[in-house]
Design a protein that fits this description.
Elements: H1 9-14, H2 16-26, E1 30-32, E2 48-50, H3 63-83, H4 86-92, E3 93-100, E4 106-108, H5 109-118, E5 122-136, E6 140-152, E7 157-171, E8 175-185
Parallel strand pairs: 3-8
Antiparallel strand pairs: 1-2, 3-4, 5-6, 6-7, 7-8
Helix pairs in contact: 3-4
Length: about 190
């Protein structure tokens, strides 16, 4: 059994990879090549994810419908970020959310919502690029995407081009909820 990553600040910054392994394992995905105990140093071996035996999220949904619903949740998330709509983000994000920014900062759900509420962080514009979606075990969606952003604070803003990985977990009552997110700056050639 994988242990949930520590909430201590140094452990949160230690390795988003460990958090992703924990999130995937918690939803029933089988992660091979990961450390058995995330309290120890995480393995740097590649992680191969295999579909675990599991009942469908809802009996009549096809993979295409699951993908469409996951993309809709990602669109709602980006719209809520630009609007600084923390009420919407409260519902769209799981309580276990770990949000990794392109500059290396890691925030929990309460930290992200507080930064948006205070104006400490602001998304002025977000132009999403293409998204690629993979459904794992019919309860986890990985969304690989890109975007051009205008981010900053009330005093200043800067353009930013990113690639991101968003991990969504399906909740039968609430739908797709963001559980982990990591972005990285795109190179100028892309």
């Amino acid at each position: 059994m994988l242990a949930k990553p520590s909430s201590r600040p140094y452990a949160r910054r230690m390795c988003l990879r460990s958090t992703l392994v924990w999130a995937l394992a918690a939803t029933g995905a089988v992660c091979l090549g990961a450390a058995a105990d995330l309290g120890s140093s995480p393995s740097l071996a590649p992680i191969r994810i295999e579909q675990a035996e599991r009942a469908p999220a809802t009996p009549n949904e096809t993979t295409t419908e699951l993908i469409q619903a996951a993309v809709a949740a990602d669109i709602q998330r980006t719209t809520a970020l630009v609007a600084a709509d923390t009420r919407a983000l409260e519902l769209l994000c799981g309580d276990e959310l770990i949000f990794g920014h392109a500059d290396g900062r890691i925030q929990t759900k309460p930290e992200l919502l507080a930064a948006l509420n205070s104006g400490e962080m602001r998304y002025f514009a977000l132009n999403p690029g293409p998204r690629e979606v993979r459904i794992l075990a019919e309860a986890v969606a990985l969304i690989f995407g890109s975007a051009e952003l205008l981010v900053g604070t009330a005093e200043s803003s800067r353009p930013l081009k990113i690639r991101y990985l968003a991990v969504y977990r399906f909740d039968a009552r609430l739908g797709w909820r963001l559980t982990a997110y990591q972005s990285a700056r795109r190179t100028t050639e892309e």
